[in-house]
Amino acid sequence: MVKFVEDELQRIRKEMLEMWALVYDQMNNVCDAMLTGNKDKAWEVMLREKKVNAYELKIDCDIEDFLVLYNPVAIDLRFILAMMKINSDLERIGDFAENIARFVIKLGDEKIDDELEKKIRLKEMTEGVLDMIKTSMDALEKGDLNLANSLFEKDNLVDEINANVNNVLEEYINEHPDKAAFCLKFKTIFLRLERTGDHVTNIAEDIIFYINAAVLKHSEDKTEKSISLLQKEKEINN
After folding, report:
1. I want to staple 52 with a disulfide (CB 3.0 to 4.6 A). Which of 2, 43, 94, 104 is the partner?
2. Under a CB-based contact definition with an 8 Å cutoff, are residues 227 and 149 in contact?
3. Are the CB atoms for 151 and 139 separated by under 8 Å?
4. What digits encode the pLDDT tens for the residues 28-47?
C-alpha cells in the first residue's frame, strides 16, 4: 500500500479511537453522576457534548475526503465504510449521555431511592453498558473478532434488565403513588441505556464486517453466525 494512504488510514483510526474514548468518558461520568447525584459531573457532560459533535463532523469530513481522493477498495473500503457508520453510532451514544445528564440536573435535590435502585438493577445496567463501549473500542484497536463477537452476549444482560424495568416501576408506583411522575421520567433512562447497547452491537457488526467481510445485519443469530465465520477463517489460515 502507498505510504501516504496508510498514513491517512492510521490518522482516521486514531481520530476514531479518540472519539470512542471521549464518548466512553461521557457515559462513564453521567452514570456516576446519576448514581451519586453529582450535579457538577452532569453539567460537565452537558458542556462536553459540543466536543463530541465536533469530533463527529471532523471524522465525517476526513472520511469523505479519503473516499474522494483515494477511491479505496477491499479491506480499506470496508474499514472506511465501517468507520463512517461507527462514527454515527458513537455520536448517538454521546447524545444519550447528554439526555441522562439533563435528567440528573432536573432531579434537583431529589434522590433515587436506594431500594428502588437495587431492585431495578441500575448500577448493574450502567456497568454493563460501559463494559460494552470499552470492549468495542478494544475490539477495533486489537482487530479482535472474539471481542467483537462477545458484545452480542453482553447486550443480552442489558436487554434483560430493561425488560424487567416496567414491572419494578409498576410495583414501586403502587407503593408510592406520589412518585408516578418521577418513575415515568426514570424509565427513559433505561430506554437510553438499552439503546446504547443496541448501538454498540451495531458497532460490533461493523467491526466484524471490516475485519472479516461478514454481513451480520438482520441475522437472527449473530453470535452463531460470527463464530462460524471465525472458525472458517481459522481453518483457512491453518
Report:
1. 94
2. yes
3. yes
4. 999 999 999 999 999 999 99
